[in-house]
Prior knowledge:
Number of helices: 7
Strand content: 25-35%
Helix content: 25-40%
Amino acid sequence: MAILDYSAQVWRDALAMPQGHEPDALVLEGTWWRSTATKARLSKLDEVRELPFPDMFVGNWNGLSVAYCCAYGAARAVEPAHIFAQMGTPLLIQIGTCGTLDVDVSTGMVALPGSCAARDGVSQYYGASETVYTASELVDLAETALGARHVGTTRTKHLTWPSLFAQSDKMCADWTAEGLVSIDMETSAVVAAGEKYGARTLSMLSVWDALPHGRTFMDPLEPDDAARLKRSNEIVFDVALHVVEAASAT
Length: 250
């Protein structure tokens, strides 16, 4: 049987996770720095254990069960999103970094995609349309929590693209003309899996690349920009846990 035709019980058996014991939320992070990110995120959780599938962890936070996986790119991120959402985890949160096409958005702000153009190469196989949508009530929660921590936010019409490298100046100009103002490699695939299996979704992405200014991750940041990016990256995970707690209480 092909994987897309598996039942949820297949995943429960594989992960030794009986029905009713699935995590309250899955937090996914897209980054090259997997080891560093994983160590930092898991330090915030108690009783952490790695699941039988590598790089998938579950820990406790304030009486809630939270899964974490560092997964770079849509093809990888959709796997844990699929597994946990199909098992019944009600909340999927994507964090990480993104590029901006908005000249008024600065490094270290957090993009909060409301809609996302699903051009990641995976979403369509989950029945997604050309545009997918995160849960507006979760975006509201995140925006309020980030503001309370003095992190600037911007709600965005977002794009998920298959590759960080396969982006040209002309592509960026075309995306800007469409009104797409932030770009990552995971969000729409995670949202598509959530939509298929009934999980609510949220994406919080710290702005790094400033594409209108010709700056990519290859260009060094000014010290103030680097400090803002580091701070927002740290706070975003704390806010993700806050959103899990708030969402679980409703």
